[in-house]
Specification:
Layout: E1 2-9, H1 13-25, E2 30-34, H2 40-49, E3 56-58, H3 70-85, E4 89-96, E5 100-101, H4 105-113, E6 119-120, E7 124-125, H5 139-142, H6 153-165, E8 179-180, E9 186-188, H7 189-196, H8 201-208, H9 218-226, E10 230-231, E11 236-237, H10 254-260, E12 264-265, H11 273-279, H12 295-310, E13 335-339, H13 341-344, H14 348-356, E14 359-363, E15 378-379, E16 383-384, H15 387-392, H16 394-404, E17 410-414, H17 423-427, E18 432-438, H18 442-448, H19 452-473, E19 481-486, H20 487-492, H21 495-505, H22 525-534, H23 549-554
């Protein structure tokens, strides 16, 4: 008993010659099909180079364009000739010129000899496969595809649209249930000969000739008709990315391929000299006998695909930006934004830095400059304090700051006087912790002792800006952790919200706060708000602020009268 190899070759004929000699040296007959697009001169040279090797033959040539019938026709012809000329063959292994045996061929022969009636072919219905790319799964069997997807894409798309519009549907012949799977299979002689000599083959061929990518469905469907024992897997290691394109193996994948324990791998880079030298060797230098297990390296490929598609959280390529809301994490690490705290408390920034151990900045998006912590003019990654440079891409400035300082918690102040372009970026960021005391922007106006008519206009403008920001923070799209207090309710009991904020930032503070940062003197602030009301501006964001909060604080609270519910 032996294994026959059908090899489909269209490029890198030098490497295909090496692989064919390797198969033949182990006693495997090889039937090679060379794509008709290869020039006659090159083809003749390839045939002549293998003249000295017995049991290597060449089959009739077809033009094998991706997604078309030519690949199936080439496989049929080569397989039929292999079975006719080598009656000792009991399994036929379909490979390409870029396939590389990873283990001694004798191990494959022994493995298949122990399973004489088993067919190894990936075969699943369209409802069960997740890898179809291009929006065509069941439709590839119900529509006609006479045009090449690669060379005549316009006609391909238009003809598909026309068939959909006219509701044209083809019927599957003979009650077949279409199956799909990898092109690279290993079938027993009994199953393969039954497919090739089926009385209804002309009907099946006529139907699959108009199926899209028939090499992934023809044998996969018909094997279900004749096989008595199918293992729906391929013995060839082949990996595909999220676009359906095959992964190419290079020299630095050597250890990865060894770990797979697979018999054959594709697609190997033609210039991967190290791989060919390592695997096309004698039995002593090859891998140990193991059950093929490509799942060992699936995790590596899954991580590579995820990194390629999603990237790293908070890190954007300088060559292009991801689509909005498609990024893998807006920022790279948690951070905190405080609105109204620096206006309400004196020396709030140094107090917060001492209490949490975080780096606490001032107003990073102030109109004059970037107020970094400790008055620095530049930060990690050469981030400048220039407002012009920052505003060129304010969103990128924030994500760069968090990325460059990951490992250290960043906190910064914000308010209605700052650049508001980052509002949505922060609101949709799960890493953001936003704490807002609404109306606190009025405290600097109250203490400025400026012309009251100007204060009234500025207060109306800032209130409108903060109101719009609050709408963003309360949106259903918001993913940040947001806490909002009115100024009136906050100053009644500031210790509890401050403790909540510190607990959320990190576990560095295990004990309860003994005292809050010193609050600014608000004597007369209530009257200031009343004056704004008297001038026609309604400062509603501060909450129900008393005209004289100091007087209210001096009055003892009257306990509520008890009552009885009957």
């Amino acid at each position: 008993m032996t294994v026959g190899v059908v090899m489909l070759v269209h490029t890198a004929l030098g490497r295909a010659e090496q692989a064919a000699r390797h198969w033949a040296a182990s006693g495997c007959p090889v039937m090679i099909h060379v794509d008709k697009s290869v020039s006659r001169k090159v083809y003749d040279g390839f045939v002549k180079a293998l003249d000295d090797v017995p049991h290597i033959n060449f089959s009739k040539r077809y033009r094998c364009e991706w997604g078309t019938w030519g690949i199936v026709a080439a496989t049929q012809t080569a397989s039929a000739r292999l079975l006719d000329e080598f009656p000792e063959v009991r399994h036929v292994y379909l490979a390409s010129g870029s396939c590389l045996p990873l283990r001694p061929v004798q191990e494959l022969i022994d493995y298949l000899a122990a399973r004489p009636r088993t067919d190894f072919i990936e075969s699943a219905t369209t409802a069960d496969v997740p890898w179809t790319v291009g929006g065509l799964d069941a439709e590839r069997f119900t529509l006609r595809f006479p045009f090449s997807w690669r060379k005549r894409r316009y006609l391909f798309d238009k003809y598909v649209q026309l068939q959909r519009k006219l509701r044209i549907k083809r019927s599957v012949p003979g009650g077949l249930v279409p199956h799909m799977g990898s092109q690279w299979w290993c079938l027993s002689r009994q199953t393969l000969s039954a497919i090739l000599h089926d009385p209804a083959r002309s009907d099946y061929d006529r139907y699959f000739r108009m199926v899209w990518i028939p090499d992934e469905s023809y044998f996969q469907t018909l094997a279900r008709q004749y096989s008595t024992n199918i293992e729906s897997r391929s013995l060839t290691l082949s990996k595909f990315d999220y676009q359906g394109k095959p992964h190419i193996f290079y020299d630095d994948h050597l250890q990865l391929l060894r770990r797979s324990d697979c018999f054959v791998a594709r697609k190997i880079w033609p210039h991967a000299h190290r791989l060919y030298d390592a695997f096309l060797t004698d039995t002593a230098g090859a891998m140990s006998k193991q059950e093929p297990n490509p799942g060992k390296i699936d995790r590596v490929f899954a991580k590579a695909v995820e990194r390629r598609v999603r990237g790293r959280a908070g890190l954007y390529m300088q060559s292009r930006f991801p689509r909005e809301d498609w990024e893998n994490g807006v920022t790279a690490a948690p951070y905190s934004m405080f609105q109204g705290f620096a206006e309400l408390f004196e020396d709030f920034e140094p107090w917060l830095a001492k209490a949490t151990g975080a780096r606490v900045h001032g107003h990073l998006f102030a109109p004059d400059r970037v107020h970094f912590a400790d008055g620095q003019t530049a930060m990690n990654g050469a981030l400048s304090d220039s407002a012009v440079l920052r505003d060129y891409n304010a969103k990128g400035f924030l994500t760069n700051l968090i990325w460059n300082t990951r490992g250290e918690r960043q906190c910064f102040q914000f308010g209605p006087t700052d650049n508001q372009i980052i509002n949505w970026r922060v609101a949709k960021d799960p890493n953001a912790q936003v704490s807002v005391i609404t109306g606190a922007w009025a405290v600097p106006l109250f203490r400025s002792n400026a012309n009251f008519i100007d204060l009234r206009q500025e207060a109306a403008r800032l209130q409108k800006i903060e109101s719009d920001h609050l709408d963003v923070l309360r949106s259903t799209w918001t993913k940040a952790r947001v806490r909002i207090w009115t100024m009136a309710e906050f100053i009644e009991a500031p210790m509890e919200p401050l403790q909540t904020i510190l607990d959320e930032i990190g576990p560095s503070t295990q004990r309860r706060l003994a005292e809050a940062p010193r609050m600014v003197d608000l004597t007369g602030f209530g009257q200031f708000l009343q004056n704004l009301k008297n001038q026609g501006m309604h400062p509603y964001l501060m909450g129900d602020f008393p005209v004289d909060p100091g007087e209210t604080a001096r009055k003892p609270r009257t306990p509520p009268r008890p009552y009885v519910v009957r």
